[in-house]
Task: inverse folding
């Protein structure tokens, strides 16, 4: 007897990057069903046209079919939110959380300062992430304007509506939360991954996070002063566990879809336990 299984329709990676006067201003991506490709392209383009920094003058969208066999499915990290009084306390908390992930305090402090100063040449915001040796603080990315960009990750199409309503019910409905959670979820699975530090370069978005496999996605309510255009990402890696090439290949090429949520804790004030 021949049993015919229903053909799974293909998935597509839809990616957008936008610039204004040659400056990168926005980038976002989705992984969607065939039927949702045009809608996703339209909504990403619309986002580039309505950037907080003004409309883009150049937008690139790419659409690429994904082989189902190459998809890795994963669970999103647990989410917690630490409430701090100001950015100084927030940065102190970031250093403590990086310390729990095994990063020496002097390296954690230097990393926070690097994002505050602008990690790109001349203090500009980078388009992608800094890759940092977790033990020595040495930077590994070859292009310090671009850094390394994590791509080809999303919530799985059938699970997205559920995840959006779960986050919205917890007051985390801003698209930045879901996108950062997905990015953190992908980098958590990277070979040699130790921790990630991030805050947005959007002057009006002051929340950031530290992610690691034990602590999950640990939001910190304030990591910079409102109006501050600094921001970026630093991925701390254990050089003995991976080569740079293997790491970049995973970050840029491995398709990761999230089909389950972690826990989401209520916001709580920072209580120092390990100082
Ligand atoms: N891969 C690597 N680095 C990236 C990527 C990427 N795909 N996208 C952005 N970056 C880097 C780049 O240097 C940006 O300047 C920086 O990260 C910040 O990007 O829970 O919105 O998209 O409330 O502005 C975190 C907190 C929000 C969300 C982070 O980042 C929450 C955010 P943005
Ligand atoms: Mg941004």
Result:
């Amino acid at each position: 007897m021949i049993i015919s299984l229903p053909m799974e329709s293909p998935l597509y990676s839809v990616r957008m990057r936008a610039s204004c006067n040659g400056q990168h201003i926005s980038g976002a991506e989705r992984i969607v069903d065939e039927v949702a490709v045009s809608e996703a392209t339209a909504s990403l383009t619309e986002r580039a046209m309505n950037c907080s920094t003004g409309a883009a003058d150049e937008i690139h969208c790419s659409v690429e079919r994904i082989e189902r066999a190459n998809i890795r499915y994963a669970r999103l990290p647990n989410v917690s939110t630490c409430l701090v009084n100001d950015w100084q306390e927030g940065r102190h908390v970031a250093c403590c959380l990086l310390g729990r992930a095994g990063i020496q305090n002097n390296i954690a402090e230097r990393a926070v300062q690097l994002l505050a100063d602008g990690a790109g040449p001349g203090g500009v915001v980078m388009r992608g992430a800094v890759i940092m040796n977790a033990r020595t603080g040495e930077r590994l990315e070859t292009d310090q304007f671009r850094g390394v960009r994590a791509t080809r990750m999303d919530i799985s199409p059938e699970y997205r509506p559920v995840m959006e309503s779960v986050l919205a019910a917890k007051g985390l409905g801003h698209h930045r939360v879901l996108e950062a959670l997905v990015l953190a979820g992908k980098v958590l699975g990277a070979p040699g991954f130790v921790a990630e530090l991030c805050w947005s370069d959007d002057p009006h978005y002051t929340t950031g996070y530290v992610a690691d496999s034990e602590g999950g996605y640990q939001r910190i309510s304030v990591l910079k002063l409102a109006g501050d255009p600094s921001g970026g990402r630093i991925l701390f890696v254990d050089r003995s566990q991976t080569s740079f090439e293997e790491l970049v290949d995973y970050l840029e090429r491995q398709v990761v879809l999230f089909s389950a949520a972690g826990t989401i804790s209520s916001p709580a004030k920072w209580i120092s336990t390990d100082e």
